[in-house]
Request: fold
Amino acid sequence: MESQLTLFYGLCVLVAVLAFAFAAYLYLWVKKQPQKNKTIEDVATLIRNGANTFMNREYKILAVFALIAALLILVFLPSPIWKGNATANIAMAVSYIIGAVLSAVAGKIGVLVASLSNGRSAEAAQKGIKPAFLVGFRGGAVMGLLVVGCALIGVAVVLWIVGDASILLGFSFGASSLALFAKAGGGIFTKTADVSADLTGKVELGIPEDDPRNPAVIADNVGDNVGDVAGMGADLFDSNVAAMASALILAQTLSGGEFATVSMVLCYSLLGLLASIIGIATARIGKNGNPTNALNSSTYVTTAVYMVFTAVATLLFEGFSWRIWGASTTGLLVGVIIGLATDYFTDDSKPIVKKVAHASKSGPAFTILSGVSYGFISAMPAMIGIAVSALIGYNICAPMGEGFAIFGIAMAAVGMLSIVGMIISNDAYGPIVDNARGLAEMGGLGEETIRIADELDSAGNTVKAVTKGFSIGAAGLTVISLLGTFMSEANHALIAAGKEVLTGFDLMNPTVFFGILIGAAIPAVFSAMLILGVDRNAQRMVAEIHRQFNSIKGLREGKAGVKPDYDRCIDIATTGSLRELIPAGMVAIIATVLVGFIGGPCAVGGFLMGNIVSGLLLSLFMSNAGGLWDNSKKYVEAGNEGGKGSEAHKAAVIGDTVGDPFKDTAGPSINTQITVVSLVASLLSSLFVSFSIFM
Amino acid sequence: MESQLTLFYGLCVLVAVLAFAFAAYLYLWVKKQPQKNKTIEDVATLIRNGANTFMNREYKILAVFALIAALLILVFLPSPIWKGNATANIAMAVSYIIGAVLSAVAGKIGVLVASLSNGRSAEAAQKGIKPAFLVGFRGGAVMGLLVVGCALIGVAVVLWIVGDASILLGFSFGASSLALFAKAGGGIFTKTADVSADLTGKVELGIPEDDPRNPAVIADNVGDNVGDVAGMGADLFDSNVAAMASALILAQTLSGGEFATVSMVLCYSLLGLLASIIGIATARIGKNGNPTNALNSSTYVTTAVYMVFTAVATLLFEGFSWRIWGASTTGLLVGVIIGLATDYFTDDSKPIVKKVAHASKSGPAFTILSGVSYGFISAMPAMIGIAVSALIGYNICAPMGEGFAIFGIAMAAVGMLSIVGMIISNDAYGPIVDNARGLAEMGGLGEETIRIADELDSAGNTVKAVTKGFSIGAAGLTVISLLGTFMSEANHALIAAGKEVLTGFDLMNPTVFFGILIGAAIPAVFSAMLILGVDRNAQRMVAEIHRQFNSIKGLREGKAGVKPDYDRCIDIATTGSLRELIPAGMVAIIATVLVGFIGGPCAVGGFLMGNIVSGLLLSLFMSNAGGLWDNSKKYVEAGNEGGKGSEAHKAAVIGDTVGDPFKDTAGPSINTQITVVSLVASLLSSLFVSFSIFM
Reply:
């Protein structure tokens, strides 16, 4: 059986390399596309430079954080260095750093590719929707392939070398702690710029979106890159790694046939990447085709290919089980269903968006109230979906023996995240074509080109809703299986300390209950801090934009040669978001540590559950309500309920402004927050066992 | 020991009668106050009639619901009538009806007293703040004393007669199911009217609040009565009964010395009422005194008196324990702390309100974003408070023996709710003086009188925040102890069925987890349905107001003798809210039943916990954010950040409009929703044991 395992390690590396090669091919293809328009090139350069400035400053701060964390890990984890063996501590610290570096690399790659594709997609739009779509999509695919390839090769190689899956917790924590700050920082940056640009440009001055007179317009485009592309890349890299790590740790602790279960996790992960490669390679759009359909159909192709591939693997390989295949397939299908439900609440061809647009006719208060309400309702299907897939995954695998039940949940998460390569491609497509639209406007490419870019952008928004539902669902399942990982890690420590092991976390135990309530409050506080960060920053930037419009002569009128000071705005967004990112990121980590040292493992178990439950609820609520408001605004702008400039439009714009930090700062960051908390808990479990006040 | 129990039954009845007598005295005192102004009398009559019309129509619908529920109880509960003994079923059904009727009576009394006090308080304000305060406060006190007296005498007499505390579940369910619908219906009514009146009057036409030209102005005042007074009375009646019922059921199942524990619950409850009587009797305000301080200091007097009384009782009576006293005192003190924390986030002399007012200068989106953020953060202290008091209550009482630990949590809830008589008095004071302000305006009592009425009203708003924090905290603790009740009821059924008993609800059990996720989604869906109800209704009413202003000649200009059609607005609010109340109320009940019949007792245990956690989070968030927006608006209106008519003011009004259904419809209704769900679960536990699909 050990030879089977070696086979899969090798295959993981092979498929990852294949993904890299395919990404390189697509990268060269994109690069080959023409970029002739001087203005677009100039602006694209400004955007690229802005993004690089922000990311360099951000990574400098995060490098300090990561070094401190690595040092702490070296001394204390998995067990204090003076007690355990030093090799394990070194392995953990090194894999932490690898995780953190790969996460940063994922972000950098995203920005590089996006800044390459956006201008080219804009120019391609002059020739029609087909070439413009392909440039945007292939740019996104480079990102998707590289991120998933890095995750797969990283996990496989670390495990191959050290052999002990629990070291992957360090790798995963490196990825997720960086993702937490990258999402928080990038999320604050992007929405600071977006909200300020909209408020001053669209609302006050009535100039179009992406008008080059607006001093915040470059910062807004930079934000799309550092928030949506880099942040999202780091986020999904982290979820993907966490899902694999959790499944692998559980697989290793399973009694009997552990090699087969470990092989299965590796096999399912590599087949997911392979399926994504095929899905990406076969993505097509007709000459006047619908980009939404093109994106969705490649998702379905990937799903079907994955299911067939894993079924074949189950037939072929010794020790593979149909039950595991069932759990993984359930996860994937439920992911698709969650995506469709999200789509129902946020797509502007469906009734909900129309209702919110209609409510806007009575004023902004009704836009907000109806959006909040439907946002809350929209959380229900996903919550049910996650609950049902956990229940099914658990029960399908329970008959396989002790410990397999929770492993079934982990495999449902792996299944849901299997097609993450495809998901990231679709997700990265969004900000690329969003940027392309802006560049088409600024480059003066004409009405028709802007219309095409608009259509591509709108498809990006719609698909984003689906992929967001997917990634929240997967994060939900992953952290549930991480709860299992936490219990198994805590039990190792309890056995070592000669104490009674945990058999579960009883809701009737007030220590658990104590943890649940605190855990449930954290995502609320965390997201509030992020939103307040955007709020504070945007107020500063609005003041700066007003200053520029008042002091730079001829700017307001668009006099030739008069340019706003774009850099000041980029600087405000950068400085502000870097100031806000550390406190918001730390609050969740510190709360976990405090609860653990006060209440011990039982309190932490409750804490994780409370955190998962309220985190899922709030992140679904915020992401969906934000998407809903965004599309309601677009629906009104398309000429409904009074169209542009009407009272309904003003109200819809206010709704969209509220929704922006909901859907692009707080909502998706909560995802990362719950993963980080789960990993911190698992990592520190032995310390909680030794040093808690009450337990 | 049985004689001791009889003594306490008798004392309960005695103290309840004392409370009734004191209420009668205060009622007569209020009635004796002069009411001379003809306009005020007319308007007060309109309000009274409107309130009665609504409540009569509402109670007719609820009577049908209650009869059906009573019939179902008669047939199925506590066990199917063909299996168990018929007497228990009859007792359960009858006590259900008593609970429902007393809840309706509590609502009716509230409206009666409020409609008597509001006009008199307005007229008294001509003589100064002192007499006006006293009329408002004593009017509220009548309500407080009667509601708590009814709860105490109801619980004591039912238990005295039937002897089996679990029959109290029927009584409590009667109270809470009615409260659920009354809160939902009244909450939708009041905010429909309030929001419509504000939007058309203040925002569009720029006429003052309570201007008699506004067709919705009477409906708005009716709403204060049916929503805030009647709904709140029913709500706190229900919480009070549920806390007593849960503690009594646990007390009866405790092994050994059961009479002493039952006596203690009764004794603590009656001493709470006694303390409230003393607090009310000693409430004073100086000639130019501060009404907020007067209200708060009587709360503190009540708290201190209660602590001393219960300490004395512990010294005096055989079998009473200092541990129980500790648990109850902890609950009470934590209640005060939660109240103070709520105050910090919603009082306009504190920084948070000022920050939100300042953010309003940048536009309504920032009002909303900052209010939502601080609302989320404000949930944290209360969540910690509840968690800590449960932990302390549990650990203080755990050494007393098996089962005492969870009883400790129940006694913390009893402690927190002990001073509910005082709380209701303060709470009912709010809408009375709010109405008084409106009547002073409509009756033309002059600037100075309106100013005094305004001051009284503002104190009402501030105190409301504190009492709301209190009641949410208490509901949280009560439902936790109801979770214990549910487990003990389910175990009775499991033993009877010869199945293995539950020892707890393990988070790692996916059936429990399944329940948690569904349970957590319910408060979100429930509150969304209520808000959408307000939204839909208000849109209808706004259309009607526009119609009247356009078609009734001279109305807009305020021509003498021209009156709007107040009744049409009242009718719209009534019909609309009655249409919305049943679906919103049923969603929670049906979800509980479905989860129970699908997943059995384990799923229900998880469901209750998910429901509690997300219910607490959302209700704290909504209540506090709403209060925060309301007071930010008032702060701007007081001349800050640009004052009335400024852009900041417009933004603050939008915030207030969003906050209205948050704080007066959805937020407080969630409280009742979680109680109802817990009671439904306990009541149906034996059916879930027998008939669930998976378990």
Chain A has a mean pLDDT of 87.
